[in-house]
Specification:
CATH topology of the largest domain: 2-enoyl-CoA Hydratase, Chain A, domain 1
Bound molecules: acetoacetyl-coenzyme A
Strand order of the largest sheet: 1-2-3-5-7-10
Order of helices and strands: EEHEEHHHEEHEEHHEHEHHHH
Radius of gyration: 19 Å
Number of domains: 2
Largest sheet: 6 strands, mixed
CATH superfamily of the largest domain: 2-enoyl-CoA Hydratase, Chain A, domain 1
Shape: globular
Number of helices: 12
Helix content: 40-55%
Strand content: 15-25%
CATH architecture of the largest domain: Alpha-Beta Complex
Distance between the termini: 23 Å
CATH class of the largest domain: Alpha Beta
C-alpha cells in the first residue's frame, strides 16, 4: 500500500474492512487536489485487494470535510478550472466497486457533503452537520451536490439547502433520508463498523453486483435498469458464492463466502 500525506489508510482495520481517514485536521479536512488524488489512488488499491470487502471513509470528530479547498481555487480563472478539472478525480472515486460507508462527524459541507453522498451509505454522529454552502462564497455545488442531494432528500429541502447555504443536523438528515444511522459522537465509527461487518459477511461478488445495479437506478430508465439488474443476477450463478449461499440455506448452516 502506498503511503499518503493527507489520508491514513488501514487496509486490515477489521476483518475484510478497510478504514480510510481524511487527515488534514488544520484545514477541517478541506479537499485539496492532492488529498483527492490520494483518495482516488487508495480506493483503487483497496478495490484491487481481495481481502478487503467493505471500505469505511471517515474524518475526525470535528469535520468529515469542510468542502473543496477554497484557498486553492480562490484566484483561479474559468480556463484554469477547466484545465485542472478537479472533479475528474471524483469520477475515480465513484468507480469503486466495493461498498463504501461514510462515517461522518462534525462538518460535511460543500465537497465534503458531496463526498459523503458519493459513498454508498452514511453513518453520522449526533454532531454531524450537512450543507452545501457554496452559494455563500459566490458559487454552487460542483461535485454532484445539485443532483445527489435532490435525489436523496427531494427537491424542496435540496433547493433550500443549496440556495440558502443553511446546514441541517443529523436528525433532520435522517428524517430526510440522507443518512442511514445516527450514533453518539464517541460511537459513530463503531456504528459504521457494525454496518460494514453486516455487509462484509455477505458474498463480495453479490454485494458488488448489487451496488452496481442500485447505482444504475440513477442513470437508467426503469426498463433498462430492470434488465441490468437481471443480467447481474444471472451472472452471479457463475460463481461459487451462489452455490455456497444456497447450499448453506438448504443445509441449515451459515454460509462461508470466499468471493469466487
Ligand atoms: N477550504 C480551505 N480552508 C478551509 C475550508 C475550506 N473549504 N474550510 C475550513 N478551512 C480552514 C479555515 O480557513 C481555517 O484555516 P486557518 O486556521 O488557516 O484560518 C481552518 O480551516 C479552520 O476553519 P475555521 O477557523 O473557519 O473554523 P470554524 O469552526 O470557525 O468554522 C466552518 C467552521 C463553518 C466549517 C468554516 O470553516 C467554513 O465555513 N468553511 C467553508 C465551508 C464551505 O464553504 N465549503 C464549501 C467549499 S466550496 C466546494 O466545496 C465546491 C464543491 O462543490 C466541491
Amino acid at each position: 500500500m502506498n503511503t499518503f500525506e493527507f489520508i491514513i489508510v488501514e487496509p486490515a482495520y477489521q476483518q475484510h474492512i478497510a478504514l480510510v481517514r481524511l487527515n488534514r485536521p488544520d484545514a477541517l479536512n478541506a479537499l485539496n487536489l492532492q488529498l483527492m488524488g490520494e483518495l482516488r489512488d487508495a480506493l483503487k488499491e483497496l478495490d484491487d485487494m481481495d481481502e478487503v470487502r467493505v471500505i469505511v471513509l471517515t474524518g475526525n470528530e470535528k469535520a468529515f470535510a469542510a468542502g473543496a479547498d477554497i484557498k486553492q481555487m480562490a484566484d483561479k480563472s474559468a480556463i484554469d478550472m477547466l484545465k485542472i478539472d478537479q472533479f475528474s478525480t471524483w469520477d475515480g472515486i465513484k468507480r469503486t466497486k466495493k461498498p463504501i460507508i461514510a462515517a461522518v462527524s462534525g462538518f460535511a459541507l460543500g465537497g465534503g457533503c458531496e463526498l459523503a453522498m458519493t459513498c454508498d451509505m452514511i453513518v453520522a454522529s449526533e454532531t454531524a452537520k450537512f450543507g452545501q454552502p457554496e452559494i455563500k462564497i459566490g458559487v454552487m455545488p460542483g461535485a454532484g451536490g445539485t443532483q445527489r442531494l435532490s435525489r436523496a432528500v427531494g427537491k424542496a429541502l435540496a433547493m433550500e439547502m443549496i440556495l440558502t447555504g443553511n446546514f441541517i443536523n443529523a436528525e433532520k438528515a435522517m428524517a430526510a433520508g440522507l443518512i442511514n444511522r445516527i450514533a453518539p459522537v464517541e460511537l459513530y465509527l463503531d456504528e459504521a463498523m457494525k454496518l460494514a461487518t453486516e455487509i462484509a459477511v455477505q458474498s463480495p461478488l453479490a454485494t458488488q453486483m448489487a451496488k452496481e445495479a442500485v447505482l444504475k437506478s440513477y442513470e437508467l430508465g426503469l426498463q433498462e435498469g430492470l434488465y441490468f439488474e437481471r443480467k447481474n443476477y444471472y451472472l452471479l450463478f457463475a460463481g461459487q458464492d451462489q452455490k455456497e449461499g444456497m447450499s448453506a440455506f438448504i443445509e441449515k448452516r451459515k454460509p462461508d463466502f470466499k468471493g469466487n
